[in-house]
Amino acid sequence: MSWTVGFVNALAQAEVDALPVDMQTRFLRISRMIESRGLLAVHEPYVKHLTGKLWEMRMTGQDGIARSIYVAASGQRVVVLRTFVKKTQKTPPRELEMALMRLKELKE
Fold first, then answer.
1. CA 13 from centre of chain
2. For the residues of 81-92, what is the DSSP string, one character each?
3. What angle do CA 87, 88, 91 make, to 5 degrees?
4. What domains can you pick out in the chain, each with its CATH number?
């Protein structure tokens, strides 16, 4: 069974669509790597563990860096919860809070 990458809701997908084109391309590249190789075969610099169940896809582009926070869900699915352009070295706590709020949507 192969992996799939999806979004928790339309807003999470719109966040990826709002990224600059080069970062969208990198998001698609990482997503395709996960789908073709499996989540366990993809490591840094493409993905990194944040805390608990939360992981991040790491995209860079001409306009800076962006992150997509995701979780591994049942049925070999990756669910993207939040995508944002990063302005500081550390992931802002409000971004983690937003991802955790959206994770609750997934469980309901």
1. 10
2. EEEEEE-SSSPP
3. 105
4. 4-107 (3.30.2310.20)
